[in-house]
Design goal:
This protein starts with 16 loop residues before the first helix and ends with a helix. The longest helix has 13 residues, at about 90-105. It has a three-stranded antiparallel β-sheet. The chain is built from six helices and three strands, in the order ααβαβααβα. It has helices spanning about 15-20, 30-35, 65-75, 80-85, 90-105, 120-134; strands at about 50-55, 80, 105-110.
Length: about 130
Amino acid sequence: MTPPQRQRRHPKDGPPPEAAKKQGEGKIPERLYVLTGATEDGDRAELDLVTLIVARSDAPQSATPEQAALLRLCIAPLSVAELSAYLNLPYSVVTVLLTELLTAELVQARAPIVRQALPDRSLLEAVMHGLQKL
């Protein structure tokens, strides 16, 4: 049996130095609620992690800092997962922010480009006939 470890006491006016070193730990959940705001209906847009988001215009003066950051990032198409990672926000918070931007028509959501599993048969036949004529 090991004796209990003694912990060093820190002044009460500031956080302990160990807490300042650990990034990302101890985030306040209320802060995330403040970011998203109180929505009346609670509806969210149907956004997947791979849905591409593109900005339609610049950030208006009434945009929150998070919404302005989303609009700056979305100059080029980015997926919702990438936006979540770049802003260091949970996926659910980013979808709420994007829903607000979608209803204001400041961004556009596009389905990702899906490649077909098999090539078009008519294209393969045309290539085959072209090779036979050579």
